[in-house]
Amino acid sequence: MPIELSCPSCGQSLRLADNQAGMQARCPQCQHVFVAPGGTASAASPAGTTEHWRVRTPTNETYGPVTRPELNTWVAEGRLNDRCQLLREGSDRWQPAAEVFPVLQNAGGAGPYSSPASVAAAPLPGKVQAVRVMMIVGGAIALLTAVSVMIASACLWLVYIYGFILGIMAIVRGSNMTTDRRRPTAIAVMQIVNIINCDIVNVVLGIIELVFLNDPECREYFK
Fold this sequence. Notes:
Elements: E1 3-6, E2 13-16, E3 24-26, E4 33-35, E5 52-56, E6 62-67, H1 68-76, E7 85-88, E8 95-96, H2 97-100, H3 126-152, H4 160-175, H5 185-193, H6 200-213, H7 216-221
Antiparallel strand pairs: 1-2, 3-4, 5-6, 5-7, 7-8
């Protein structure tokens, strides 16, 4: 039996097929996305389990893992469209987002779209946040040290160039840590190596970062 309801946003009368119960639907009048009554949005999940997904955007950025309810919210807010791809935890096949959310079919990428990164990011785990801060601070110190060595040596001690490279890489990597979940071990090692520029601070920071990166909290985040 068809599902008759009103759009929760504009009040437009709608009729949906009964097999759309519990699925995402879009109002043709106001384009509001909502979940049709009569089922659950994650009916395909075994009872008592939570689906986790990863998202690949049209610009090839990857986010996640996120839960199915979070994906529902992103769809409703226009942060996913039919050009995105989804990967369910435990699977090795990326699916077009429209396979998981039929409401995105025939959207043609139309309408406002913003990356999931524009959603307020969840707080980072404590030790991950500490690594992020130490990496950004270490990058700034590496740049200042490189300038000092360059001036003091009249540009003759060319290893100051390494300090500039480290500074830029550490600041960029630390700033992107909320979305880039690759382990930043290489940057921590580079900070230690900056002892060649007499940068004691980065040696200490690099050692602490390596210790934190081997903590279970960080290993879970950077897997």
